[in-house]
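Notes, Module 5: Reading structure tokens.

Key idea: the token line is not a picture. It is a compressed description, and you learn to read it the same way you learned to read a sequence, by spotting repeated patterns. We will look at two proteins. The first is printed below with its tokens.
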Amino acid sequence: LIEEVKRLLDQGYPRNCVAMQSFGYKEFIEYLDGKRTFDEAIALLKQNTRRFAKRQLTWFCNDPRIEWIDTSQFSSMDGIVDNLLTKNFV
């Protein structure tokens, strides 16, 4: 990922463009600019990813259109797929 960020910066992509603000890019830009150590960038990336996952889970849990499937009731992936097909999810 660091090499990708370096390459994009070398190609002239601005640091503040939306794509460069995604997970990993923003943190590694700060590392490459000397604003953070590598370990700090990794720690921040992990923290930001956890926060995003928590917000995403909260959103899914509060969206009435989402139907959760208890996969523990199935013995195989085929059972899960069959269940989805009978409910017209796919």
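Here is the second protein, with the sequence above and the tokens below, as before.
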Amino acid sequence: MDWWEKFSERATIDDIDRYRKKSIFYFISFFGAAVILYFSAKSYQSYDVTLSVILLFGAVLISVNAVLAILLKKDDIHYYLAVACVLIMLLGVVYTGGYKNTALYWLYPMPLIFFVLLGVKIGGVINFLFYIALLILLHPSVSIPASYEPAETSRFFTSFALMNFISFIADYFRHQSHSKLAKISHAKLRQAYTDSLTKLPNRRFLSSVLTDRFMKNSEYFPLSLVNIDIDHFKAINDTYGHQVGDDVLKSFAALCTENIRKDDVIVRTGGEEFLLFFVNTTKDQGATLAEKLRELIAGNSIHMGGQEFTVTASFGVAECHRFEALDHALKIADKRMYLAKQWGRNQVVSQEPE
């Protein structure tokens, strides 16, 4: 797993889709419950107590489920509960016939609602099972209080199947479009947050994603920050050319990436400077890890353009215990890196002289 897969979240489009689904769920739940309560009252006034009780029971369950979804903040399970409540209520209404045997008219919006709340696959399964249940319930051999004409039920099943099919097609292509948009958004975000030369995270990733992750997750702390600067990089460019300089940066980035822990992150902050984050690591532990990395870099021979040479780097290490102190720790790591430069380069500095 590379750094992008660890930190990326398909939040931009997925969050929008979750918000869309949540908004529809709450609107349908509360508005639908209000409409159902109205017809429950009308049925009671018409002395149809059975229908009134079924509608009242359904409205209460739907409303309570929506309120619990708000309080518990677990939307997905409440989508299923809402659909279950609606299915039970509708089967009861179809069984009794509703007001003057008009129950079947209220079933037409259901396929679209089930697809919206449950998605193409599960919504399709629920709609299919609901259709089968209606076929069984309305079969001539089944005795129910409601009285539906054969011509009415045959045309209902044909039109209801068509409604299911149209709803499936609409939600299927909506899902396909959403997936394509999510992939495009994901790819563009990765491109924006990746240094084009070294393929490491860049400064934009540091300021927009990584710091936000540190702010929201205290388990990363203590955090050991290591500011790294390649020694005499300008001389490499001047002596061997910028192409070799670019190759050195790529080789350096690859070597660092291969020799840090899977939860650690290295960022190219600009030029020949890099910032390394050792998570759950004290300053002393970070200095030890940085020293091992320094030795690997110094001992690595680079063969480019018919030339063989080695590269060294200077390291400044600081420790951070909470997000609020991150900027201060970055400044300390930067200061210690410059001390490493002043003291002869190719070394790790984790504290100032007393």
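Summary for the second protein:
- Residues 150-193 form the longest helix (44 residues).
- The beta strands are 223-230, 265-270, 273-278, 301-304, 307-310, 313-320, 348-349.
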